[in-house]
Structure formats: structure tokens, C-alpha cells
């Protein structure tokens, strides 16, 4: 159920935690970093949280002005949640937590979601040329664009991608860590790739050393 607990501490850190310190709150924020999401998308990305809990966190974040919701125009017509301008200021905070957590052991059999992998891709990419990719992960489609020194990710399919990749988040994560396994992953049916094969390899390899 929703909570209104407060640390009752004037420190700005405590005041920030009054807003985003509840369990799952920052993971809800993480799921919205790449663009608007439907409730069902956020819920699917957080399998350890119940529907009621996700509803509560979204409601609390909305009440605090971190998240807003709007209805998409026809033919979609669905309601999506997205970060407000103030909520988006949490992005470097969330990414810094991710960098800090990189030194911690990964729990065995832990869930690895699409947003986490795409943020990992975006954060480490150092592309040298422009390209557009259609990336399908767990039945959701994303547009990944590169230009020299920059990679962006947004939900939805591009009109004319240079290459298409279809796989699951753990496989993409593994390939980002070891791009040389791409051919074996394709041969084993773990990855479907079409279009410019060189572009696919560049996407995996042009990362921070």
C-alpha cells in the first residue's frame, strides 16, 4: 500500500530518500529512463514486485512530481508513464548507483531486464559512425541510433534500419561483454541478425576499453 513515511531529517539526502527511498522506487525510475512505458511494461520488467506494489510506487512518484502519466492519441490510446523534467534529473544518480554496484557479485539466476541491458549498451558505447538498428528484446522493439561518440535508445521501431537484431537481454549482455561469441550465438539460434552484418559487429565492439 502507499506509504507516506518520512525520515524527519532536514538533510537533503534524507529529503531525497523520502521521495525515492521506498523499495522498488528507483527501479521504477530506471525503467522510465529510456522513454514512456505502459504499466504492463513496467510491471513485466519488475517480476519480483506485485502489481499492487508497482501501482503504489508509480502513484507515489506521481504525487511527488517525479513521474507523470498521459494517454497516447489514437490508434494506441493507452496510458503511459514517463519521467517529468525533475524526475529525469535522477538519471545520473541511478547510473552512478549502477556503476557502483558493478563491483558487487551478481546473484545466481537473477533477473536481467531489457532496460538494464540497453542502459549498459548506451553507457559503454563509443561508436565511430552513424547507423540505425532495430533491436528486439523479449518481444519489445527499440530503436538504437549511433553517431560518432554517441548512442541513443528509444522505444519503437525505426522506419529503415541498417541492421536488425533479435535476442533476449541476457544474451545481448553476454555479447556486449564478449562480442567474439556472436557467430556462435547466431548458429545456436540465440540471436537473429539481418541487414548490415558489419554494423551489428560494430555495435557490439565499439565500447569502452
Written account of the structure:
With 209 residues, the protein is α+β, with helices and mostly antiparallel strands. 41% of the residues lie in helices and 20% in strands. The protein contains 10 helices and 8 strands. Helix 7 runs parallel beside helix 8. The radius of gyration is 18 Å and the shape is globular. The termini are far apart. The mean pLDDT is 93.
Subunit arrangement of the protein: single chain
Shape descriptor reads globular
Fraction of residues in helices? Answer: 40-55%
Distance between the termini: 45 Å
Strands, total number: 8
Model regions low in confidence, pLDDT < 50 over at least 5 residues? none
Query: How many helical stretches?
Result: 10
With strands numbered from the N-terminus, the spatial order across the biggest sheet is 6-5-4-7-8
* Computed structural class: alpha+beta
Q: In angstroms, what is the radius of gyration?
A: 18 Å
Topology:
Elements: H1 12-20, H2 25-31, E1 37-38, H3 39-45, H4 51-63, E2 67-71, E3 79-83, H5 85-88, H6 91-101, H7 114-124, E4 131-137, E5 140-147, E6 150-155, E7 163-167, H8 169-177, H9 182-187, E8 192-195, H10 197-205
Parallel strand pairs: 4-7
Antiparallel strand pairs: 1-3, 2-3, 4-5, 5-6, 7-8
Helix pairs in contact: 7-8
Amino acid at each position: 500500500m502507499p506509504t507516506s513515511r518520512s525520515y524527519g531529517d532536514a538533510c537533503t539526502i534524507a529529503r531525497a530518500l523520502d521521495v525515492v527511498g521506498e523499495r522498488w522506487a528507483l527501479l521504477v525510475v530506471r525503467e522510465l529512463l529510456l522513454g514512456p512505458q505502459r504499466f504492463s511494461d513496467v510491471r513485466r520488467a519488475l517480476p519480483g514486485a506485485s502489481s499492487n506494489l508497482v501501482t503504489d510506487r508509480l502513484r507515489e512518484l506521481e504525487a511527488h512530481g517525479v513521474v507523470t502519466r498521459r494517454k497516447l492519441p489514437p490508434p494506441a490510446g493507452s496510458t503511459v508513464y514517463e519521467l517529468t523534467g525533475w524526475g529525469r534529473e535522477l538519471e545520473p544518480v541511478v547510473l552512478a548507483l549502477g556503476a557502483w554496484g558493478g563491483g558487487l557479485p551478481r546473484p545466481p539466476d537473477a533477473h536481467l531486464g531489457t532496460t538494464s541491458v540497453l542502459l549498459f549498451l548506451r553507457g559503454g558505447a563509443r561508436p565511430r559512425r552513424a547507423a540505425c538498428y532495430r533491436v528486439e528484446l523479449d518481444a519489445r522493439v527499440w530503436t538504437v541510433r549511433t553517431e560518432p561518440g554517441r548512442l541513443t535508445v528509444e522505444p519503437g521501431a525505426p522506419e529503415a534500419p541498417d541492421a536488425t537484431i533479435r535476442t533476449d537481454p541476457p544474451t545481448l549482455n553476454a555479447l556486449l561483454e564478449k562480442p567474439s561469441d556472436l557467430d556462435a550465438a547466431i548458429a545456436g539460434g540465440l540471436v537473429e541478425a539481418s541487414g548490415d552484418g558489419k554494423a551489428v559487429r560494430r555495435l557490439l565492439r565499439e565500447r569502452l576499453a
